[in-house]
Amino acid sequence: MNKILIIEDEPSVLEAISAYLAKEGYEVYTAERGYKGLEYAEEIDFDLIILDLMLPDISGEEVCKRIRSKSNTYIFMLTAKSSLEERIRGLDLGADEYLVKPFSPREIVARVNALFRRIKDDSGSGNVISFNNGELIIDHDKREVRLKNEEVALTPIEFDILSILSSNPGIVLTRETLIDRVLGPDFEGVDRTIDVHIKNIRKKIEEDTKNPSYIVTVFKLGYKFGGGQ
User: Fold this and answer.
1) Residues 90, 173: contact at Cβ < 8 Å?
2) If 0-12 CB within 10 Å is exposed, 13-18 middle and 19+ buried, where does residue 104 land?
3) 178-190: buried (b, 16+ CB within 10 Å) or exposed (e) per residue?
4) Phi and psi dihedrals of 92, rounded to 5?
5) Which among 66, 57, 50 has a CA at the least distance from the CA of 13?
6) d(CA 106, CA 21)
7) Could you tell me the pLDDT band of residue 130, with boundaries at 50, 70 and 90?
């Protein structure tokens, strides 16, 4: 049973989301304060954390930052902040997806179900792929990446993007294709979402982010993987 933590200070929203997810069979934990959510995250290995940005005791951004520094669990952000730059900031802090309020609890359930379906579909790949004479190693079974024998801390979405690109070396994948395969066809965000994740991946695996060798931009089309076996 997948464990989900919801950190949300509006009781009506918290109760609605938790009730819908519990009905789907998930093991749900709730916290109305950010610090309480951090305590839970320290004690329990969650498969997903649903995090509101507007909390009364500590900002959701800070909660996300602290969780991400210790864990690679999926993080969905709930936000009333609708500007593109504010959403991008959330992704830069390590969030995997976001939903802008107001939203339907059914929408949350659909996104959560889609997430766990993707994880299940990817779990049987059993591939370990090596690039550039072992400089970069991607272990699909363990969902781990190593660069020059050092483990790289990717978020789940970052791993999924790198996995899809590296499994199709030299093939240009559009932003729309990456969104569909990583975030699901129901994702209603913007193309910049993929760009932000790509930027963050490059910071972690590229020697020169301005002249990347692994994730290459194809002007006006999308991205392709350029690492050699």
Assistant:
1) no
2) exposed
3) bbeebbbeeeebe
4) -65, -30
5) 50
6) 9
7) confident
pTM of the model: 0.70
User: In which element (H, E) is residue 110 found?
Assistant: helix 105-122
**CA distance readout (Å), 105 to 15, 38, 135, 192:** 10, 23, 44, 25
**Structure tokens belonging to residue 48:** 């997903």
Helix (H) or strand (E) holding 69: helix 60-70
Of residues 42 and 117, which shows the higher confidence score?
42
Q: Collect all residues with Cβ–Cβ distance below 8 Å to 206 and sequence separation of at least 6.
A: 212, 213, 214, 215
pLDDT at position 82, please? 62
- Residue 83: is its pLDDT beyond 80? no
Measuring CA to CA, which residue among 202, 178, 173, 200 is closest to residue 189? 178
CB atoms within 10 A of CB 103: 14
> Which residues, other chains included, contact 152 with Cβ-Cβ below 8 Å and sequence gap of 6+?
145, 146, 204, 205
Predicted confidence at residue 93, as pLDDT, reads: 77
**Partner residues linked to 147 by β-bridges:** 136, 150
pLDDT at 127: 80
Quote the pLDDT of residue 186.
65
Average pLDDT, the chain: 87
Token code pair at residue 124: 């049987």
| For residue 102, cis peptide bond before it (omega within 30 degrees of 0) | yes
What was the pLDDT predicted at 229? 58
